[in-house]
Amino acid sequence: MPTFDLSRISEIDWHELIDGTPTLKINHGSGTVVLQLPGNVNVADRRWHRLDVRSNSKEVRFTLDRCSGAAVMEMEGLGSWLTTEDHSSCEVTGVTPNTDRHLNMSQVLQLGGVNEDIPYIYPQLQHKHFTGCIRNFIVDSKLYDLGSPADSQSSSPGCLTTDSSCVNMCYPSCGHRGRCHGEWGSFSCQCVPGYTGHQCEEEVPEFSFDGHSHVHYQLASPLPARKTWVQVLVRTRKHSSTILTLISKELSEYLRLEIFQGLLCIFYNLGDGDYNVTLPTYRLDNGEWHEVLLDRHDNEMTLKLDGGGGQREVSGSRGRSREIIIDPSVVILGNSFPSAVNKSFQGCMRDLRLNGRYMPMDSQPRDGVSQVSVQGLSLGCSSDSCKRNQCSAPFTCVDLWRVHECRCPPGHMIRVNGSRKSCVYTLCATRPCHRGTCVAQSPSKFTCHCPEGYRGRHCETPLAIYREDVGLSFSSLFAICICFMALLGNIYCMLHIHH
């Protein structure tokens, strides 16, 4: 199946498959530039493929499948560095004619075909309609929901040619906790974080790291030099620590996934200097479980937190080197390597996956992964803050996971007099709210916060409410990315965008 991933597309773009070969046409008002991949490239092969278009409004780059199959040669020496890569079979570049950089008008975006009822002529197009499947449509980092278009015709949610592979005897092929990726006549399963097994039926245990801990893994086979994919669940209150370290045999090149000053960060050196990418805004040191994901392709690093998207995701591609030969005998979880400076992780981790491999935190070898050494780990992720910290009566201790808080009994509020705190009786102790939560403003004043469906001073009046289904629609589940699977050799995709 071919997939079609589009990003950073601007102005007027026409995308076609001509006899199976991707073609891009761009016009800024002063002539059309045509970029076509070599004629021996045929993506009408019933496989998913990805297309990227990157433009600065003058120079345009048209790339197939991220050039993941291109051969890279890197030569490194004392004070020198050289890399060569042949992109002739997967990428074409061009420059739009004359000096026009923008088209000063707004038009509709059309995907998978053109609406011929719109009064517009398309002389540049040989083919005006598409047969196949499309997903992951991204423009300037914005993901478009293909399940909610302004207008559509002859399109339906999902991909009928592959969806049937994800259902076995009317039961999901990957179980209820697995994401099924359908292929032509086959499928693969990716379990949601925290679960594993053939049908994602096994819950992955949690492990505590005591702050002087690590797990040293050895892999039976090497990792790819140009791609690294890491996913793990973490829970911590420590502001800075190391999650995972990957390093070359010479110890000069590395990938180090860290929590740095509360933020998710990747530090790396692929042979041409030290760089880092940080995900701002969202902190990991708040004691809650977070899903952490690193996706590296060549020197492009993408960090995602809790599913990514919006401000929970960031990408960066600093440096020129694209490869790192990771030593499969030195994969360190929970600490840096060499460990001259202790950056040990303190908190809990669960369900580490490295390039699709499940990395066990217990001592059982699995998926070609074994443990060389383990230190400072224990099963579970409990907290005993209230056992180690006592609150003076009448305060009671509340465990907030490895920190505690002394609170007044229900129906009381804290009164502060200088450095002295005391609990004061309030009317909330009489439980005046029939439903909802009582919040005391003073010993004699309170407010009832009513739940949905009730109102009134004491939440005593029921309301008739209509509940909509808050789950994802079937179309939303499949509007995750834009790719196309071509059934025919000729397709069309047109974009009219004005910034």
Automatic annotation (TrEMBL):
Claim: Transmembrane helix is one of the keywords in the record: yes
Disulfide bonds: C170-C180, C191-C200, C428-C438, C450-C459
Domain Laminin G, chain residue ranges per copy: 1-159, 204-381
GO-annotated molecular function: calcium ion binding
Domain EGF-like: residue ranges: 167-201, 424-460
Gene3D superfamilies (UniProt xref): 2.60.120.200, Laminin
Pfam families: EGF, Laminin_G_2
Transmembrane segments: 472-495
Keywords in alphabetical order: Disulfide bond, EGF-like domain, Membrane, Transmembrane, Transmembrane helix
One Gene Ontology term, aspect cellular component: basement membrane
InterPro entries (alphabetical): ConA-like_dom_sf (IPR013320), EGF (IPR000742), EGF-like_Ca-bd_dom (IPR001881), Laminin_G (IPR001791), Neurexin-related_CASP (IPR050372)
Protein name per Swiss-Prot or TrEMBL: Neural-cadherin
Source organism: Pleuronectes platessa
